[in-house]
Design a protein that fits this description.
59% of the residues lie in helices and 13% in strands. It is α+β, with helices and mostly antiparallel strands. Strand 4 (282-291) and strand 5 form a beta hairpin. The protein is elongated, with a radius of gyration of 33 Å.
Length: 354
């Protein structure tokens, strides 16, 4: 048996069965008709009036134009009403309203135009126009419902992708960092190294500050910075004077939403691939600044620099994907050599409104 049976009820009760919820309409159906659509409708009505003026029998031009005007005045508010209610019950009510309007117009026409021959043309316009109007309202409801359903499906797919990427990022960050730090801690405890206690304190602060954050798909930059600073404190406990850092963030950008763990991934890469391999160590410099409608976040280091043929690992690929999902096609991650050696990782994404 087919999993997609024919819905015969569409023949006598057309349209989407279930109404959209207020939340669904707010997420995917909050836009009004475009100015282009309204302009096209107006042009079509004017062209129809012009055609009536050219081909109507002599003496019936005004009555036929009046019939078209009545149909337009009836159809415009019904179309606007259905735009915000694109499902079957409102469509049925609107169709019955058109039929009632046509009956009322026929009765008025009979009273206003006693001559049977004289009301033949307008009656024909009302009959054909009423049927056409019902078809147009049906088309509007079906098209609008499909438009909203497609948007909801795209939003759901995007949310699933963000959630999967977030879980992947969290799964990559925690073991990698924790295993290395715990190995150092174990070694220092075994050798009674006095650095064990500060490292344990820094690691505890890092876990307390960061683990709850990975449950969220996005974070304000200010929250992400807390995780970054805790991470740098842990790494400084391990590397000592070989690691220094500076943070230079415009205050207005502290509310900037970021994919959770994105900035931390870049800082982790700067330390692991830039500072740790360098015998002299180095400095990690974080900057955030606004450039027009965009915000730029830089993680620069003066360590070992990029390899001869740089390639994204899983972490950077994950950041790129989540950045694109969050900020659209203009959002980007770029890597470049630093002016004093090392590497600059630059995140670009839409800036919050000023």
């Amino acid at each position: 048996m087919s999993s997609n049976p024919i819905d015969w009820s569409q023949l006598w009760y057309p349209g989407r069965r279930q109404p959209f919820t207020p939340d669904e309409m707010a997420r995917a159906g909050a836009d009004g008709p475009s100015r282009t659509l309204l302009a096209l409708l107006l042009v079509n009505v004017l062209m129809l009036l012009l055609a009536v003026a050219l081909v109507a029998p002599e003496g019936q031009e005004l009555s036929l134009a009046g019939a078209i005007a009545v149909l337009t005045l009836l159809g415009a508010p019904l179309g606007w009403w259905l735009w915000w209610r694109p499902w079957r019950q409102p469509l049925m009510l609107a169709s019955l309203g058109v039929v009632a309007g046509m009956v009322l117009a026929a009765l008025l026409l009979r009273q206003l135009v006693p001559d049977r021959e004289g009301r033949g043309g307008p009656a024909l316009v009302f009959g054909a126009g009423g049927g056409t109007l019902v078809l147009l309202l049906w088309f509007l409801v079906v098209w609008r419902a499909q438009q909203i359903e497609a948007r909801l499906a795209a939003l759901a797919e995007r949310e699933r992708a963000i959630e999967m990427a977030r879980r992947l990022a969290a799964a990559q960050l925690e073991p990698h960092f924790l295993f290395n730090t715990l190995a150092s801690l174990q070694h220092w405890v075994d050798t009674r190294d006095e650095r064990a206690s500060p490292l344990l304190t820094a690691l505890t602060g890092y876990l307390r500050a960061t683990l709850p954050l990975f449950k969220q798909p996005t974070l304000p930059l200010s929250d992400e910075l807390v995780a970054v600073e805790r991470y740098l404190q842990v790494m400084q406990a391990r590397l000592g004077a070989r690691l220094a850092w500076q943070i230079d963030i415009e205050p207005a950008l502290r509310a900037l939403p970021l994919p959770s763990g994105a900035l931390l991934t870049l800082v982790e890469n700067a330390v692991q691939h830039g500072i740790e391999p360098s015998l002299r160590g180095g400095t990690v410099h974080l900057r955030a600044r606004r450039r027009g409608a965009w915000a730029e976040l830089e993680v620069a280091d003066n360590g070992a620099g990029l390899p001869a043929q740089p390639a994204d690992g899983v972490g950077l690929a994950n950041v790129r994907q989540r950045l694109s999902l969050l900020g659209g096609p203009g959002a980007a991650l770029a890597l470049a050599p630093g002016p004093d050696g090392g590497c600059i990782a630059r995140l670009t994404l839409p800036a919050p409104p000023t």
